[in-house]
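Q: Can I see a sequence and its folded structure?
A: Here is a first one.
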Amino acid sequence: MKRTVVAALLSTALLASVPAIASADYAGVGAASQTVLGRSVQLVYVNLNDTNLEVKAVSAEGKVGETESLAALAQRNGALAAINGGYFNAYSDGQPLTVVRTNGKFVHNGSFGAVFGINTLNEPYFGRIYPTIEGGSDGSWSWPNTWSAWGINHYYDNPSAISILTPDAKKRALPASGKTVVVQNGVVSKIVNGDAAIPANGYLVHFGANVASSASVFDVGEKADYKITYRNSGGQPVNLDALGNMMGGGPLLVSGGAVVVDPIAEKFTDPKQTSRTSRSIRTFVGWRSDNRLVMGTVPNVSVYELADVAKALGMVHAVGMDSGATAGLYANGSYLTTPGREVPNAIIVKKRDASSVNASGYVDVYNDHYAYDAIARLKQKGVMNGEVVGSARFFKPSQTMTRAELAAVLTNAFQLPKDGKHTFRDAAGTWYDSFAGAVVNAGYMAGYSSTDFGGKDPVTEEQIVAILARVLAKSGVKETAKDRWLQDPPSSWLEKDVHLAIKQGLIVDAFGDKAFVPKEQAKRAGVASLLDVAMKKVGK
């Protein structure tokens, strides 16, 4: 029977200690052998309370599509422990088939749903997610400037495929019958028939022969961009901002302490995964309530029996990884389970180094985020500072912005005096009291009435665009861009200001990394991106 699985980002907890384990080179990582349900299981326990440790998803030779021995991969990355990653084309071109995200960058999207992910705070995630790749051109995310892709860093034989290739991919020849768009520094540099080199500062968009005409959405010299979004098995968006490292596998074995294995629901068709009698050595990654990450290999089990073993080991959440000859487990310089072939990727555990710290200053804003530069600049200038939770600072880029928050960032961005008086009863004595007075006295925002500012209410995209258009006009920014028709028109009372923003070059018809939807609630990342542009225009 199909069971519903709710993906959850787990809070760390300091509970009971793990059972006695073998001696280790580092106290936070230990290996053990244990007999469970008649199988001799090899295990590695990782203490996630140890902030000196980090867990990462890495690719063989540092390139998507390469393979190497698990031991070599572990040693090259300075790993204390490693387990093989997700499924791949083991008998053909070696390309992975699952999600791989490393240090905030999606280096491969996957066709299977179950994933393990982890953030900078060592908080793990287990769930089912499904990707969509959407693109925009000419600064627009609306038709006719939109496009989509099948995959990122994956080569397809299908002539109807559209794929994105970044410098993270192993370069392979592209079919001469297709068309390739070369994007450098966010701008289309050329469009060619057939193959092209992947630029170090950009990517390729390759259109197969059957869809080559779709490349007409691009023009040389115009902007180009894309984004990868994910939804759960119920079709709802999943926020993965904070999960800097992810590895797809499957099937999901245990969730919330219950066995939930259902390979058919996760679109597996291979009898090796769907049959209850197909047994081999299999691997899993799981999490226990004592905040230990557990990586293990189990011989001679079906995926259903693997789930039973994981539950018997006390896993609260667990997901399977690739199996058979790929199965491998490494710890403290040697194999616990030796794989029979090279692997394309792995989950590793290593001592944390400086490169794992996000330069943005936030644990949930990685360098592949579309608003990364804007968010980092606004933090440096003291305009948007996020929220400190424990010892970590979060930006929460996908969170809706409120009127109170907008008042604060406008005050900070344009250095408004905070001694302005107001008559808003709902703002008096609140954290945004002085900010409400500042923006109202500057003429940037208005209250709902003389007594109601509505600070807790969300702001819409059209409201922010209109406000910034007025700010730019007050600062003398000229109208130099051509006005354009909007697919989704703004409210009549804001239409003049929105079109003023277009002529000022503040927006085209995009809001952050999506189409401009005037009445939609504005997200913090989109506000940061727009505010960064506005500040540059007035010399801030």
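Q: Show me another, different protein.
A: A second, unrelated one:
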Amino acid sequence: MNSAFDIKRFFPFLRWPRPTLASLKSDAWAGLSVGMVLIPQAVAYATLAGMPAATGLYAALIPSLIGVLWGSSALLAVGPAALSSLLVFGSLSSLAAPASEQWVALAIWLSIYSGAIQFLLGAFRLGRLSNLVSQPVIVGFINAAAIIIMMSQLPTLFGVVDIFSVHPVNMFERVVADPSHMLMTSAFGLGTLALLALSKRFFPSFPSLLFITIFATALSWALGYSAAGGEVVGEIARGLPPLVLPSAISFENHRELWSAGLVLALISFTEAMSSCRVLARKRRERWDENQELIGQGLAKVASGFSGAFPVSGSFSRSALNLYAGATSAWATVFTLICVLICLLFFTDLLYYVPRSVLAALIIMPVFSLFDFGAFKRLFTISRHDGVIAIVTFVVTIAAMPRLHWGVMAGIVLTMVSYLYRHMQPRIIEVSEHADGTLRDRQRFDLPRLANDLLVVRIDAALNFLTGGALDHFVVEQCSRDPHIKRLLLCVGSVNDIDATGVDTLESLQITLKSMGIDLYVSAIKKQVWDVLEDAAWIEGLKQDHVFMTDREAIAALRSA
């Protein structure tokens, strides 16, 4: 029995339920629907990542299979994704020329590094480290990334390569002198955008992306778009992905890729994690973030050895999987059959796809990433979180193309904000409320339990961040009122204590004793009690100075 458990632990796909004819029919329809969307998307995201078009299909094949076999979410669609592709482009822009051999080699190494990081995080059960990328950082980065993605595709969409690098007057004069190229390219790009928007509005369940791409490709071929100077995808090698070993790169390049790989691993997993949560909520099933990290990591490594770029979980294709009626991971197998058939027999049909159409395929899903209202919500909830989101947004835009600096800035600011907030714990004087509980004395205008008794509560962990604040508050209150002879410290809200916290209590006890004040403690939680007992601090107090509950302390000290 243990052996079987071990096998399923290392090969989670053995837990897949046995398919039935009905479930296979549902999975086949869903898988084919996703596959028809994935093929043009894969080519489009390859161009977004600065990679050859064929690598998008390579990234959609073996990595997708590995991701679903070793992942924990049955319907998560693993493959090329917009954010990951953008991060690839941003990470490599200063190191090589897009689509060059050096660029491809760097992308392969980046895929392996980011995958290895995710795999190790999952293997050592450190999936919660992905929470370092907080919601404000995600909001700031995704909105900035959406703008960057759209701006990066405008030159291709309109057929003006240097749209952002020349003076607008010069560009306008050149376009006016020969408007045919821009008009022809824009017609395909803007026409595709319009058709995608209309189909999403009126035919949301129809795989319009594929049919619009086919229509644009046929029109491109019929009109001689390529012969007239229009940019098309061009030749895509037919056949299976060439399993390759990564080419040698310099140590400086490796060092540049380490930080980029870490950020890509965190961001792409955060993207995949949001999809997993939605799918789990919709299907009322559990998922394992550590197992998903392992699956995502292995998928990235497999993508690297397939000669492709880092993959991730796609929210849009995962949602389509669910919408189309997929019941299990077998849907992904049918999706991969679509990609495989395309690679083996139909890559020639992609030759005439206009690049402006691919730009439209990239831009259209990006509209769903915009959520500027999230900034307002964050400011309403927490000013600190709102500032973190804005800083992440600004730094991401300013650091372009090195986008990972925006995420790093957001993470650092999140940590600083966390430490700052926890260095100012809520420490208040409390007294008995009419309902018998201890409440804020100042807020509810309560009298003291006794004239010589000060009751203090700390609503935070007692550690190196909060110890000094507690000591300062107590000493200041006792010094201000010479009538105080007894102090009750309510620690029921203290869930954790470290060596500095113990030292704070020892120092406070000595200080109060020198002031002629007795120290009492109430409602010590077990985990705190164990630390204080090991430190022999409990023994230093008299037995009648420690109370199990606040109510017991109130009764004893009021009567005294």
